[in-house]
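User: Predict the complex with D-galactaro-1,5-lactone.
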Amino acid sequence: MSDQRILITGAAGIVGTLMRPRLARPGRILRLLDIAPLEPAAPGEQVEIVTGSVTDAEVVTAACQGVDAVIHLGGISREDSWERILEVNIDGTHTVLEAAQAAGVPRVILASSNHAVGFRRIGEAGPAGLPADSSARPDTYYGVSKATMEALGSLYHSRFGMDVSCLRIGSCFDHPADVRQLSLWLSPQDCARLLETCLSTAEPGFRVLWGISANTRAVVSQGAGEQIGYRPVDDAEVFADRMPPGELPGYLGGAFCDIPLGQHNPL
Ligand code: 15L
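Assistant: Here is the predicted structure with D-galactaro-1,5-lactone placed in the model:
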């Protein structure tokens, strides 16, 4: 049997860097694409490095050849000007999906975000938590790009039968940094678990899932993830006594709901 090959866009970013060692498996080659420099392959590591942008159709088309699945993490990860969000996040996602379908890639995982529904009120869906497929209520242009990403994923599933999973990622960092993230944290290990679940689901399907750990203070419903076998293990609560003082915001998107639209923001 030939090796499984997975293309990861945005592989030099925060989530990409966390996933590189965690998705490595015997019999699997990770093809890592980023505009930013990537560490060369360590001895024994099965990786292929591609330097380029998700906005460059030629680069992305070549990178999709011979690939079994694409994990699309590439793009701007916070608020920015409409022009930049449009080019990198919206057009970039279209470029990736188009290249994947032209190359016959059967499966794509898209890194969406809680900011696609950032203007949903925490608690609005009752104790069961906000369902993963709640309709879009973006909090920024960045959030609009994530809602659009999900719509594009749906289109490519319906038109071409691709298996598409959209992950509404909460806060994927080594550890939570504030009270809001005690609810929305996705541990790196659980992120890898979620990706592995999506990589092995029966195809073809289209699904929107929360990317959240098994947090005691969760405010979203894990139902859709559970249905396909996602079993998060980590709980942000173990970090609770180290959090700076603060309260849960009214809206899921937290501070993103208040920052000026279209301004590059360090959040
Ligand atoms: C995101 O979508 C961002 O990419 C990340 O930097 C965090 O801000 C995260 O959401 C969050 O909401 O905590």
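The beta strands are 4-9, 28-34, 47-51, 69-72, 107-113, 163-169, 206-211.
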